[in-house]
Design brief:
The complex is a heterotrimer of chains A (about 400), B (about 350) and C (about 300). Chain A folds into two domains: about 30-165 and about 300-365, Response regulator (Rossmann fold), CATH 3.40.50.2300; about 170-295 and about 375-405, Rossmann fold. Chain A has 13 helices and 15 strands. Chain A has helices at about 1-35, 60-80, 100-115, 125-140, 165-180, 195-210, 230-240, 250-260, 275-285, 305-315, 325-340, 345-355, 405; strands spanning about 45-50, 80-85, 85-95, 120, 140-145, 160, 185-190, 215-220, 240-245, 265-270, 290-295, 355-360, 360-365, 375-385, 385-395. In chain A, a hairpin with a 2-residue loop joins strand 2 (about 80-85) and strand 3. In chain A, helix 3 packs parallel to helix 4 (about 125-140), helix 8 packs parallel to helix 9 (about 275-285) and helix 11 (about 325-340) crosses helix 12 (about 345-355). The longest helix of chain A is centred in the N-terminal third of the chain and has 34 residues, at about 1-35. With about 300 residues, chain C is mainly α. Chain C has a single domain (about 1-130, about 145-295), classed as Orthogonal Bundle (ABC transporter involved in vitamin B12 uptake, BtuC), CATH 1.10.3470. The longest helix of chain C is centred in the N-terminal third of the chain and has 31 residues, at about 1-30. The chains are: A alpha/beta (about 400), B mainly alpha (about 350), C mainly alpha (about 300). Chains in contact: A-B, A-C, B-C. Chains A and B meet through helix 1, helix 3, helix 4 and helix 6 of A and helix 1, helix 3, helix 4, helix 13 and helix 14 of B.
Chain lengths: ~400, ~350, ~300
């Protein structure tokens, strides 16, 4: 029996070594491609990493992000950018982190190993934060297009940036808007107990209170729930003017329908996670009149934005939420490389912090922590099944978008 | 019976094998690093899962108690470490203080779970442990108000890495002229811990307690009739399994530098259970094999599917990401279909199964 | 008072769905003692198939109710076939294997079905086209819709049909006999394989009905929706005493009501210490408390180890 057992252990170990061995051949095969810079006629390949969940419940958002980044890479290649006298060809290295923090770190390490020049991602705060310390150690600039947890940039890493207003910035705009512009006296707040929903809802609560509104109900659900009648019934009893949801479109859609069934007439508002065509699709008629916000300026009002909209929709179909931001994130990295005249992360990293770039989501500048400076927030209303701009708050180019307010009528 | 007595002294007769295994274990992080540090990290998670699976093996494999909420103890350990070694409460205790505390707290939770479920059997126990796992996760997710204990869904950041004096596990340092990266250091720590849990598992298997567990697993009523204090023995299984989960959680916390409740979902419990059953319940090498396979398989598939499809069909027919999980599920079904006792069952189990089939 | 009434209505609708799904778990468990973890996925496939049929017929000019009926029928048929093949391919070869083996198979099957559904129907949320014009009724300050009435009525009909089947037909008798003792039943001339296959088929048909209900009630479907639903329904089955038909129905409705009332009143009960973020633990806490005092569930017989 022992004779059988011991060799078995060895086989298992040998097998595991072999498995690990398999992986090592790949980077080797890829290495000549990167090294080919010297003999080839003045062309270098620069790889940019992109990470988002491509499997799981929010895979549709992950794919959207990746498409945004892919479009940016294609556009940049079309421009035939030369850096340090060499023609640069950009390549996107897309990875799937499954929205799982553990996989997030492995994938981050994989990008570091593959010697990417910079990283765009991840999508969720839960994977962005643990991955950020790996990028920080490797000195790789990381720009998240969608992680809004304030903690991401509060870790003191000089490599962590985001092109999206964080929860604090966005929440205070929404809360103020509800209390002031919409004149809400009473507000009910629901969040989905994710890092995003909770963070946003807390800020909305603070801002609404500061502007004189009373929070009459604070309810909770989860991001996988489809039945909200119990909490909505409870909210109905408190009869609020406004209901705010900190959560994603998949929660908001059915929630709106159930509100209608229960005869709740309060004004429904939500943040960027629910401010998508998907919400209109899921809620149907019940989405009429919903007020929601997105970080950045409305893409269709910006010169670059219109081109982006047209290109993206013709190539990949409808935009979900964050693809304009992942597009901008890639462009910010490339812009910094151009200014530093180098694709070496060590050299161009300081330039990322000094960015001043007119992106498809507005002007992008970073503060000392890496958060977007004076990030613009745009308020939308859903009318006739479309997102219509109501107004824009903040943002260096807010004045340029001023005509947007008139577009309301 | 004879077989078991023989296995108690394998080390002397197989010293060659032991040395070889040792050499392989030593070489793994350096060989893997040739393919990139990512493979070292994957190896680390594989060993972390070996550790967890062996902890669960005590509860499921030895005592036969079906536990679907094992991840709760892992979570408790991870949060104990996170709270005691991060700026969240401003505490920065060294790891050799925290890991035992984590194990202790997890152990208490293990008994908390065990106590009300002692009367339950089989599938009732499964659903209650599953519920317990969810309860712990939901509390971790929500204990940011009224007092902020866990910081809710946003999790705890900037957790200290394991540090011995100035020797930090977070970055690369040179030992005896060899550069050892952070992940490689964790690898050696994890291997040391895993060897510890393997020794405990082996010692338990043939101890008084181990035999009592086996008796309960086979027939609880008969075990009671033989004078075994089933209540205490079952509680002991829960407590021991939980302690190992707690230690694993602490290491996970230090390795990641960040914990949030989403790492401790029900799926995680199910995966760990699948490792134990797929490999061969109650059989140490089998459980180790199961853990390594289930961690490595998705990663290998991640690399393998795309080129394979390109080679066979000349283009991508099915999104590789969805195919990966499909193959993962399918392989679980197939293994169970053709090796119902697991890939590498204990010889004794195999015999029993062959007998009952006749 | 109107709030309480509304919560009861909410809970009853949800509970009717849970009960139907729970029956699928309990039928299989009652006969061969297997937790068919993939049952939630069968329900999901039911929703998806109904969705495909309804969408493809929506433009055909047939009356909406008929389209809905056809969708339901096809989805029931597909799920029956699925249930049958699940049993035949995945579970039958494992009879007599160690107890945990089929559990892992079930988990594996559930992953397979989920990913197949994702490949077929995509990873996005799907909106179920509303086929019935929704009417909202008001009663004492609470509201309910005709869809809710239809769900509860249909669930009641299906369940009484099932009770008739199990207690009044030859197949039902064979099922009860197999549940009590398969070996003796087979000696009495019962074709065990057929009975077990039928348990899967009937359970899956119930699941398909539940799936269509979920689809038309929430008007939303997703390839991962089966997991949580299955888990809740399984909890309901255990709460009622797994293997017991009446128990599954009672457990389902009870769980639905507990969840609704839990989310609605947990704050008041605990002086606002716990809010509705703890609504999901409510079901589990009740389950644990019930099982502490009645280790075989509310309606389960007191019996020895099933293993």
């Amino acid at each position: 029996m022992n004779q059988v057992r011991m060799p078995g252990v060895l086989i298992a170990l040998a097998a595991s070594v072999a498995l690990i061995g398999c992986g090592k051949e790949e980077p080797k095969a890829a290495a000549p491609a990167a090294a080919s810079a010297a003999p080839a006629p003045e062309e270098v390949i620069v790889r940019i990493g992109h990470v988002a969940p491509l499997t799981g419940p929010i895979a549709h958002l992950g794919k959207d992000n990746e498409n945004g980044a892919r479009l940016a890479v294609d556009d940049a290649n079309a421009q035939k950018i030369t850096i340090d006298g060499k023609l640069v060809k950009f390549e996107l290295l897309g990875e799937d982190d499954q929205a799982d923090p553990k996989t997030g770190t492995v994938v981050a390490q994989k990008l570091v190993d593959a010697k990417v020049a910079g990283v765009v991602g991840h999508l969720n705060s839960g994977t962005t934060i643990p991955a950020s310390s790996i990028y920080n150690q490797a000195g790789l600039p990381q720009i998240s297009p969608s992680a809004t947890n304030p903690k991401y940039t509060q870790q003191g890493f000089n490599t962590a940036f985001r092109v999206m207003a964080n929860d604090v910035q966005q929440g205070s705009v929404v809360g103020t808007y509800a209390a002031k512009d919409m004149g809400a006296k009473t507000i009910a707040i629901i969040d989905d107990r994710t890092a995003y929903g909770q963070g946003l809802a807390d800020e909305v609560e603070k801002a609404a209170k500061a502007n004189g509104a009373t929070v009459v109900a604070r309810e909770f659900t989860n991001d996988k729930a489809i039945d909200f009648k119990a909490i909505l019934t409870k909210i109905k009893a408190t009869n609020p003017d406004v209901i705010f949801l900190g959560g994603m479109d998949a929660v908001g859609g059915p929630m709106l329908k159930q509100m209608k069934e229960l005869g709740i007439t309060a004004q429904f508002t939500t943040g960027d996670g629910g401010c998508s065509p998907e919400l209109i699709k899921l809620a149907g008629e019940a989405s009429e009149g919903v007020i929601c916000t997105q970080a950045g300026l409305p893409a269709d009002k910006l010169p670059n934005g219109q081109k982006f909209l047209a290109d993206f929709t013709s190539k990949y179909g409808q935009i979900q939420i964050y693809s304009p931001y992942s597009y901008d994130a890639v462009m910010v990295l490339i812009d910094a490389m151009k200014r530093a005249n180098s694709v070496d992360p060590v050299k161009y990293l300081p330039e990322v912090g000094k960015t001043s770039y007119d992106g498809v989501t507005g002007k992008i500048e970073f503060d000392e922590k890496g958060d977007i400076k004076n990030g613009a927030i745009t308020v939308f209303e859903i009318k006739d099944g479309k997102l219509v701009t109501l107004k824009s708050e903040g943002g260096a180019m807010a004045a340029a978008a001023a005509p947007a307010t008139e577009a309301k009528q | 019976m004879n077989g078991q007595v023989k296995t108690s002294t394998p080390w002397q007769r197989h010293w060659m094998a032991v040395v070889l295994i040792g050499a392989v274990l030593l070489a793994v992080p350096f060989v893997a690093a040739l393919g990139g540090q990512a493979w070292v990290r994957i190896a680390n998670f594989a060993i972390l899962y070996v550790f967890l699976a062996l902890g669960l093996n005590i509860v499921v494999g030895y005592a036969g108690l079906l536990d679907l909420g094992y991840v709760a103890f892992y979570a408790v350990g991870a949060y104990v470490y996170a709270l005691l070694a991060s700026p969240h409460f401003g505490l920065h205790l060294p790891f050799w203080v925290i890991l035992p505390i984590g194990a202790g707290v997890a152990c208490i939770f293990g008994m908390l779970l065990g106590a009300p479920t002692l009367k339950l059997r089989g599938d009732y126990l499964a659903i209650v442990t599953l519920g317990f796992g969810e309860i712990i996760r939901i509390f971790l997710n929500n204990l940011n108000a009224p007092i902020n204990v866990t910081n809710g869904a946003q999790g705890i950041t900037l957790i200290d890495p394991i540090r011995i004096g100035d020797f930090s596990f977070a970055d690369t340092s040179t030992v005896l002229g060899v550069a050892i990266s952070g992940p490689q250091k964790y690898y050696f720590l994890l291997v040391a811990l895993a060897i510890g849990v393997i020794i405990v598992n082996i010692r338990l298997q043939n101890s008084r307690v181990g035999r009592a567990w086996q008796a309960i697993r086979e027939d609880e009523v008969a075990a009671k009739a033989c004078g075994i204090n089933t209540r205490n023995i079952k509680l002991l299984a829960f407590a021991m399994g939980a302690s190992f989960g707690g230690i694993a959680g602490g290491v996970f916390s230090a390795m990641q530098g960040f914990v949030s409740p989403e790492s401790f979902s029900l799926m995680e419990s199910i995966t760990i259970l699948a490792m134990v059953v797929l490999g061969g319940m109650g059989h140490i090498p089998g459980v180790i094999l199961g853990a390594i396979l289930l961690t490595a398989l998705p990663e290998v598939l991640r690399y393998g599917i795309e080129p394979l499809q390109q080679a066979v069909f000349g283009r991508m027919i099915i999104d590789p990401e969805s195919l990966r999980m499909l193959i993962f599920g399918l392989s679980m079904v197939l293994v169970m279909r053709f090796r119902p006792a697991g890939l590498w069952p204990s010889p004794q189990r195999r015999r029993e199964l062959a007998e009952s089939a006749n | 008072m109107d709030t309480l009434l509304q919560q009861l209505i909410n809970g009853l609708t949800l509970g009717a769905v849970y009960a139907l799904v729970a029956l699928g778990y309990t039928m299989v468990y009652g006969i061969i003692g297997l937790i068919n973890f993939a049952h939630g996925e069968v329900v999901m496939i039911g929703t998806m198939v109904a969705f495909t049929v309804i969408v493809s017929l929506a433009g055909s000019g047939m009356p909406p109710l008929m389209i809905l009926g056809i969708g339901l029928m096809i989805s029931v048929l597909v799920c029956m076939a699925l249930g049958w093949s699940l049993e035949r391919v995945a579970y039958r070869p494992l009879r007599g294997a160690p107890r945990l083996t089929p559990l892992i198979t079930a988990i594996g099957m559930s992953m397979v079905l989920q990913n197949v559904a994702m490949i077929i129907w995509g990873r996005n949320y799907i909106t179920f086209p509303p086929m019935i014009e929704k009417h909202i009724f008001h009663i004492g300050g609470a509201t309910f819709t005709n869809v809710q009435v239809a769900i509860v009525t249909l669930a009641a009909l299906v369940m009484s049909g099932l009770i008739y089947l199990v207690h009044r037909t030859r197949l039902g008798m064979a099922m009860r006999a197999t549940a009590q003792n398969p070996q003796v039943a087979s000696l009495m001339g019962v074709d065990i394989n057929r009975v077990i296959a039928m348990a899967f088929v009937i359970g899956s048909a119930l699941g398909a009905v539940a799936g269509c209900m979920v689809g038309s009630y929430y008007e939303i479907a997703h390839y991962q929706m089966g997991f949580m639903l299955g888990l809740k329904a399984f909890t309901a089955a255990v709460l009622g005493g797994i293997g017991n038909l009446a128990g599954a129905m009672a457990g389902g409705i009870l769980l639905g009501v507990i969840e609704a009332l839990g989310a609605g009143y947990i704050g008041q009960l605990t002086g606002d210490f716990l809010g509705s973020h703890y609504q999901d633990i409510f079901a589990f806490v009740v389950l644990i408390v019930v099982l502490m005092f009645r280790p075989s569930g509310l309606f389960g017989e007191r019996e020895g180890d099933r293993a």
